[in-house]
Amino acid sequence: MSEERERTSAFDIVLTEPPKEVEVKRIINLTPHPVILVFDDGSTYEVPASGRIARVETVQEVTGYITINEKQFPIMRQKYGEVKGLPEAQEGVLYVVSNVVAQALGGKRPDVVVPAGFVRDEQGRIIGCKAFAVIR
To answer: For residue range 83-135, what is the model confidence (pLDDT) as tens digits?
Structure first.
């Protein structure tokens, strides 16, 4: 397998295999807000929030404190637990979730993606994305 490199302004992208087109019949957005896809020609497509939200349980424990203005502020260790609200995989269906949910899955679900390549407005707010990413 050959390795190609594309130089960008911030980092190197290493493609270890050629990109492939994936046949998707339906995109289900399991985040609480619409996801706006921005195509190369500037056109957009909105993936509305489905009304269902995939979430991950978190377990937190205090590991220490820092002192600010003579007051203690906790430092916590956070572990991800079980993912809730994510349907079983279905052929031709892509699920859009938050980065936290995708990280908790650890790459076990190739049908689960997160928005990537953010497009921002003049104030720096995210207004869309140029790609989906699979978190491994």
So the answer is: 999 999 999 999 999 999 999 998 899 899 999 999 999 999 999 999 999 98
Terminal-to-terminal C-alpha distance of the chain: 20
> Which uninterrupted H or E stretch holds 104?
helix 99-105
Pairwise CA distance, residues 50 & 17, whole Å? 33
Parse the chain into domains and list their residue ranges: 4-56+85-133
Nearest to 61 by CA among 81, 32, 88: 81
- What gap in Å lies between CA 2 and CA 115, rounded to an integer? 27
Positive or negative, the CA dihedral 1, 115, 125, 58 is negative
Whole-number CA gyration radius for the chain: 18
- What is the model's pTM? 0.77
Break the chain down into helix, strand, coil percent, rounded to 5.
Answer: 5, 50, 45
- Segment 108-116 long-range contacts (CB within 8 Å, at least 24 positions apart): 110/134, 112/86, 115/35
